[in-house]
Specification:
Elements (H helix, E strand, L loop, with lengths): L12 H7 L5 E3 L2 E3 L1 H8 L1 H26 L2 H12 L6 H30 L9 E4 L5 E3 L4 H4 L4 H17 L11 H17 L7 H21 L6 E9 L3 E5 L9 E4 L5 H7 L4 E5 L2 E4 L4 E5 L6 E10 L2 E6 L6 E2 L4 H15 L2
Antiparallel strand pairs: 1-2, 3-4, 5-6, 5-8, 6-7, 8-9, 10-11, 11-12, 12-13
Helix pairs in contact: 2-3, 3-4, 3-9, 4-5, 5-7, 5-9, 7-8, 8-9
């Protein structure tokens, strides 16, 4: 994955910074940064050092993913590294796929949640649709069908277009902090998965071959998702001197609660009630419905994030992590419809 790289690639920035901590090097009036010197003078050595740096960076990231990322991401990633099937290429491949898909579902809820909460007009935003016969990109306006699509690539293109639109129009949305390169790597992972595996369950040999291609790209993708360390997904439980909230972060699915002081946003949190998930990202707080919800096990000891998969039979169908069986929350359908309509009014010309 490091063959075709450029010095100013976003993925090289942290590595270059690590080499340049002591400042520039001057020789006979010539001055340059160490990273640039290495890149120009010994490109193969630069690539190897970059590879080693990324491996170390990825190892350090693992614990953050396990402990701080949204639970559906943390749970699936930990299974791919430490789960019972981590040494089985077929099962490992499935867990990695579940991990990057979970990242898409989480970001989908975050981006649309911010748009709805801040009432952002996106009627002139046009996400990518396809390439024409000359390989030129074709864009289309948002629609209800596109917003509620069950196709993962469409979901990625939807939120990528919003982040790009916000940046180019100086909207200053919080989601601008999501690297565009993350979306591109997620799209590439989906393309690889779709191109290689046209069958439901690959053989061990097919899975091993696919893993050789996917793992380097997956690691790069995960490094681009580090903003998720700062994202807390919460559900309001009750209020005393502070708000007691259930926390949906980290690989453990047992119920965990923390007390929060939301300051001036306390009223908004109270208005969400106990049937809504919301995000706390730095000083930003907004609801994640209708694209993220939650479910509980029969014993009441565990809670699961449940992400929107599709709409059928006039119901919103979600998939809870671990259980993996789609279900609808029929008593909330009318609320989901109102939330969806609020978005439609903001995005459909």
């Amino acid at each position: 994955m490091l063959v075709e790289i450029k010095y100013d690639d976003p993925g090289c920035q942290s590595f270059n910074n690590s080499l340049d901590e002591e400042g520039s090097i001057s020789i006979a009036g010539f001055s340059a940064m160490p990273s640039r010197i290495l890149f120009e003078m010994d490109f193969e050595a630069y690539k190897q050092e970059l590879l080693d740096f990324k491996e170390q960076e990825f190892e350090e990231l693992k614990n953050s993913v396990y402990n701080y990322y949204p639970s559906c991401v943390a749970y699936n990633f930990r299974l791919s590294e430490k789960g019972e099937g981590a040494s089985d290429p077929v099962r490992k491949l499935l867990h990695l796929k579940d991990t990057w898909e979970s990242i898409v579902f989480i970001i989908y809820g975050i981006v649309w949640g911010e748009v709805r909460f801040k009432n952002i007009n996106l009627k002139s935003c046009r996400p990518f649709k396809q390439f024409d016969t000359l390989n030129n990109p074709i864009y289309e306006s948002f629609s209800s069908k596109r917003l509620l699509s069950d196709a993962l690539k469409i979901k990625i293109q939807n939120i990528k277009s919003i982040v790009e639109f916000s940046k180019s129009n100086n909207l200053n949305l919080k989601c601008e902090q999501i690297p565009i390169d993350l979306f591109d790597k997620l799209l590439e992972l989906q393309d690889i998965r779709n191109d290689i595996s046209h069958h439901a369950t690959p053989t061990k040999e097919q899975a091993e071959e696919e893993l050789r291609i996917i793992i380097p790209l997956f690691q790069e993708m995960l490094l681009e998702s580090k903003f998720l360390e700062e994202v807390k997904i919460l559900r309001f439980e009750n209020h005393g001197s502070k708000s007691k909230c259930e926390v949906f972060n980290g690989h453990a699915l047992n119920k965990e609660y923390e007390d929060f002081d939301f300051g001036v946003q306390q009223g908004y949190v109270l208005s969400l009630g106990q049937e809504n998930l919301f995000i706390e990202w730095d000083s930003e707080i907004f609801c994640l419905s209708p694209f993220l919800h939650f479910d509980k096990d029969m014993t009441g000891h565990e809670s699961y994030l449940a992400f929107y998969k599709r709409k059928k039979e006039n119901k919103y169908w979600f998939e809870p992590i671990k259980i993996r069986t789609e279900k609808s929350f029929d008593h909330l359908t009318s609320r989901f419809e109102i939330e969806k309509d609020a978005l439609i009014n903001l995005i459909v010309p």
